[in-house]
Protein 1
Amino acid sequence: MGVVQAIMSVFADDGDKLRCINCADGRTRITFLARSPLYYVCVSSWGEPESVTRFHLEYLHLQILSVVTALQLQRIFEKRTNFDLRRLLEGAYTYLASLHPLDLAMTTASLGALRIEPSLRNKVADALVPTAKIKDMLYVVLVAGTRVITLARPRKHSIHPGDLHVLLNTVTSSSVRDAPASWLPICLPKFNPNGFLHAYVASVRPAAELTLVLVSGGGGDGFERVRGWCETVMKKLEDDGTLDAVERAAKASEYSVADLGIQGLRHFVYKNRAHVQVTTPRWEEPYESLGARRRLITMYQRIHDAIHAKSGQEGQLKLQYIRTEHESVMGWITQPFELYITLSPRLPKSAVVGAANAVARWAKREEARLFLRDAPVF
Amino acid sequence: MADAAASADKSIQVKLVLLGEAAVGKSSVVLRFVSNEFQANKEPTIGAAFLTQKCRLEDRVLRYEIWDTAGQERFHSLAPMYYRNAQAAVVVYDVTKAASLDKAKSWVKELQRQANPHIVIALAGNKVDLVNNAAASSSSTTEETSEDEPDDATATPAELAQAASGDGLRAVARDEAQAYATEAGLLFFETSAKTGEGIVELFTEIAKKIPIEHILASTRGGGANRPGGAASGSNAQGNVNLDANNQTPKNACNC
Ligand SMILES: Nc1nc2c(ncn2[C@@H]2O[C@H](COP(=O)(O)OP(=O)(O)O)[C@@H](O)[C@H]2O)c(=O)[nH]1
Ligand SMILES: [Mg+2]
C-alpha cells in the first residue's frame, strides 16, 4: 500500500497524474485513480480498455462516498493521514464488492428499465406520486431486482444514473433484501457528496425481487412520514391488483434474442440515448458460460471505447466492426441510440449491418414497453 | 379511546430496539424470533432493519415493531432516533467476546440516561450454543488471543475461526452478567439464535413487563403531539408487506 502511495505522490508532484502501468507479461495492467484523499488501484488482465477500468474505479468511489461522505473523508484525513478507512467501511464490504464489472447498464452509463406494458407502468407511476406535499420526499422508485419499473421525483431534481446505480446496488445487498423493511442513511454523491439522505426500502414481493425504495432528503427521524407514504402506496398497488400484475410481468420480463427473429443474431445491447436506458436480451448459448460472457463484454467495452473516443482516438467513429474466430461484433452510434450487436462470425458484414438495422427498428417499435419514457414528477 | 393503540385485531403496538456491538447476533436473534430461522453467514445490517412480530400473552396480544440496528461505529449517531420512542430495548452481547459486554454496558448507560424513562431493557448474552458443551473443560493452550486486538478487521476472522473450531471459550461468566443485570435493573437471558434457546422467553418476559397501561394512557393523551410515539395509529393497517411474516403465527410467543 505504501508503495502505491509513494509512486502516486511522485507523479502527483510532477503535476503528471499516473494513470496506468502495463506489466511485462503484456496482459496485466495496473490502473490508478486518485480521488483525494483516496487512491484507487485496479489490477486487471481481462484486456478491457483503460477507460473502462477507470470508469469502474469511479463507480467504486461513488459507492464508497455513499457510505462515508466526501466531507467526512476530508475531515478524517485532515486529522489523521494514516487513518485506516476499513474501520468506517466495516460491514459495507459485501455490497462494495457487489458492484459488478460485467453489468451492462453500468458499462454504458445508463439505467436498466424493466420491460413491461406501458399501461401497467403508468398505473404504478400514479400510485407512487405523492398526492399531497410530503416533506423532504425525493425519489420514490419501484424496482424488480436492479431494473427500474418507474421512478417518481420532484420536478427540480432529476436523478443521475451514477446515484441510481449506487442506490440500487445498496438496496439489493442481501441484508437489505432479506429484511421486510430497512431504513438507511445513504449519500448519493451526485446529488450531494457531503450529506446523507435516508432511504426506506420495503421488500414487497421477495419472489420477484420487487422492492419499493423511498428516498427522503430529511434526517433520520423522517421515518414515520416516509413509511406512512410507503404504506399508502402499497395499499393502492395491492387493492387494485396492480402489484400482482407487476409481479407476473417482472417474472416474464426477460426476453430471448430469438424473439426478434433476426437471422444469426446472438446478443445485443441497445441504449436509448434520450432516456439513458439500455435493454438487452437474457444470456443464452453460446454465452452461458462466464468466460464467454466476459469475453463478449470486453469486446463491447472496446467498441464502446472506440466509438466514444475515450482513449484519445482522433475522432469518434460512427460504426466499429470487429470479427474474431468466436463472433462478429459491431457497435453503431446515432443520435437516438447506441447499439452493440453480436452475430455468428460466419456471416458477412452486410448481414451484420442488416441485423443492426432490424434491431434498431424493433427497439423503436417496442420502445414504450422497453423503456421508462415519462417518469412522473411531483 | 384505547383502540387507537389497540388496533383492529386488539394488539398493542410496542416499539422495541436492538442494540449492541456488530456481529454479536442481533439480526440473528430477530430472525429467530420473527421467522424461526437461522442463517450461518448473515451479512451485516445496513442502517437498521424494521420488522414486526406479534407476541401473545394470556390476557393480551402485543405487536412488536422491531428496529434491528447496525452495530458499526459509523451508525452510532443514528441510534437515538431508534430508541427515543422505544418502549423496550434488547441489548445484545456475545458470550464468547468480553469486549462486547463492555459495549453492551455503555448502551445500557446511554439508554438509562436518554431513552424513555419507562423503557424495559433486557440484556441478552447470545451465542450460548458455542459454550454450552465446552463450559467446564476449557483448553489449556491459550495463545495470544485477539481480544484486546485494536484492529477490528483482524479480530473478526479470529473470532470466526474460534467459532468454527467448535471450542468457543466462554469469555463472560453467566453470574457476572446476571449480577450486573440485576444491579442495573435489567431483564437477563442467555440466548442462542442458532438453537433458539432463550429467544421466545426473552421477548415474552419483555412483553410481560411492558407497562401497557402507560402506553394506552399516553396514546389517549393525544398521539398527535407525540409523533412516532406509541400510537402510530394511522399506520396500523395496510402494511401487508411488513406483516407477511405473521402468516406463520406458530413462531410467535407461544405462551
Ligand atoms: N453459533 C452462533 N452464531 C451466531 C449466533 N447468532 C449469530 N451468529 C452468527 O454471528 C454472525 C453475526 O450475526 P448477526 O446476526 O449478523 O450479528 P449483528 O451484527 O449483531 O446483527 C453471523 O455469522 C451469525 O450467523 C448464535 O446464537 N450462535
Ligand atoms: Mg445485524
Protein 2
Amino acid sequence: MKLEKPVVEIKGFGGTLGLLLDSEALFDQVVEELKKLLQRTNSKGFFRGAEIFLKGDRHKLSTEEFERLKRILKQEGDLHLKPVAAEIAKPQPEKEVPPEVFPDAERLLSPEQSLNAEESAGSRADVEAVPLSNSEVSPFHQELLKAEQNTISESFPSPKENPAENPAKKPETDDTPEEDLFFIPNMKTSQSLLVRQTLHSGQSVRSKISVVLMGDVNAGAEIVSDQDVFVLGTIRGMVHAGAGGNRDARVFALRFQPTQIRIAELISQPSSEDKKKAQLAPEIAFIEDDVIYIETCWKLRV
Amino acid sequence: MGEAIVITSGKGGVGKTTSTANISVALAELGKSVVAIDGDIGLRNLDIILGLENRIVYNLVDVVKKRCRAKQALIRDKKNRQLFLLPASQVDDKSAVSPEEMKELCRELKEEFDFVLIDCPAGIEQGFKNALAGADRAIVVTTPEVSSVRDADRVIGLLQHHNISASLLVNRLSVKMVEAGEMMSKEDVMDILAIDLLGLIVEDPEIVVSGNQGTPVVLNEDAPAGQAYRRIAKRLCGDWVEVPSFEQKKGFFAKIFGR
Ligand SMILES: Nc1ncnc2c1ncn2[C@@H]1O[C@H](COP(=O)(O)OP(=O)(O)OP(=O)(O)O)[C@@H](O)[C@H]1O
Ligand SMILES: [Mg+2]
C-alpha cells in the first residue's frame, strides 16, 4: 500500500510546533483535513494555547486564508497560529533541527483528557514546554483508562489504581512538576499492562491490551490477552495471545515450558519431547499457515 | 503485641504439624512466649507430636463457642513453661468455627504471647480459610516434589489475595537424591515459587522417632532436622542465620527435561 502524503501535518521542530501544508492540496481540502486532524487528536486539551508556526515554504496562503486557518486552529485546537515571519523573528535555528519532543499526538491523547483541559486551557508563554508536559502525562492517562477495561479475574487483586483518582480528573495546572521526558517524533508506541510478579497457580490475568510480565507464569496460572504477551521469565502455565481473534498476536518468553500456548483460536500443546528439546533461549510463538510455531528469538520484530 | 503465623501447604502430609510443633518449641527455647493452635479440627495431631495428648480438657471449638475461656483451654508444655497448646476438637468438623471467630481469637492471644502459631489443615477449603483468618504472615511448607510444589504455589497465590506475606520451608530434602539429580534442589523449588526461603529441613528419620515419642526433634541436639528448626526459630526472631547449601551436580530438571 502506498502511503499518501498527509495534506495537513502538525510537527515538532526542536520544541516549537509547525503547521505543514501540502502545497498541491486545494485550500478547502486543507481546511477539511485540518479540522479532522484537530478533532481526531483532541488537540484542545493537548496544546492549550501553544503557538504554532506556519511552515511557509509549503504553501502560499492569502491573508484571508491565513486568518481562516488561524480561526480554526484557535477554536478547535486552542493553538495560536503565527506566520512564518514570527518564526524567523524568534531566534530559531534556520535548519529544521531533528525534532525531539513532539510525539504522535493522536496516539497519546484520550478524550478524557480534553475534558479537563477545558478548565486549564490558557495561553502559555513557554511554548517549548507544551508538548513536553503534555506528552508526559498522556501515556499514563491512557494506561489508566485502558487498565479499567482490563479484567483481572476476581480472585486476583486489581491494580492499586483507583478510577476516582484517575489523573484525567486531576486538574493539570502549570505548577505540577514537569519531568524531563523526551519522546522521539512519531514514536511508535502501544499500550501494555506491566505485571510485576510471578503468577502463581490459580492466578489469571486477562487484558485487552498487551501484557508484559516480570516474572514467571507458573503451571496452573494463565495470561489471556487480546494482543501480545511478553513473559520476562518462564512460562510453565497457559498463555493465550490474540484471544479476541488476532492471529498476528505473539507470545514471547525467556523460557518456554508451557502446558499450552494459544494464539487466536489455535492451540499448541508442546509435548514432553518438545520440552526436552527446548533450548534455554528466548523464544517466540506465532502463527504461520494455520500452525503455531515456536522459534528462538533474539530480537523482537514489529 | 505478638505475631500470628500460619503454617500451611496445600498438600497433605508434607510436614505442617511437625514444623508447627518444632518451631513452637524452638521459639520457646529462645525465651519467647508461644501458643500453638491446632487448626486441624477433626484430625488433631499437634497434641501428639508435642506429647500433650493426655492433658486435653477443652479445645479450640470450646473457646470460640464461649464454653470456656481461652486461658482454660491452653495446655502448658511439660518442659517449657513458655509454651502452650490450644488443641483442636476431635469431634467437630471445620465448619464449627468461622474465620471471624479465628480472627478474634488470634487477636486476643497475640496480646498475651510473642508468637501464635497456627497449624493449618491440608487443602484450601474452610479449614484453610479459618487458619488464615487471624494470621499476620505464613510459612508455606513444601517437599521437593512436583505435586507438593504445585500445591504450595496455589497456596502462595491465595495468600497473596489475602495480603499475607509468605516465606518458604522446604522439608524432607534428601541431599543424596538432589546430588543424583533425582530430586529438586531448594534452588529449583525457589525458582518456581518465587518467595523467600525461611528454612530447609532434610529428610531425617529422627523426626519419625521423636514424633512417636512426643518429644519434638528440636530437643535433640544432634539431629540435623532439630538444628534446622532452631535456625528457623532464630530467623523468625529476626536473627538471620544462613541456610546451608548443598552442591548439586546435575540438576533435577536437567535430567527430566534433558538439559
Ligand atoms: N524431614 C522429615 N524427615 C522425615 N520424616 C518427616 C519429615 N517431615 C515430616 N515427616 C513425616 O511425615 C509425616 C507427615 O508429617 P506431618 O504430620 O507433620 O505433615 P502434615 O503436613 O501436618 O500432614 P497433614 O496434612 O495430614 O496435616 C509424619 O509421619 C512425619 O514424621
Ligand atoms: Mg497436620
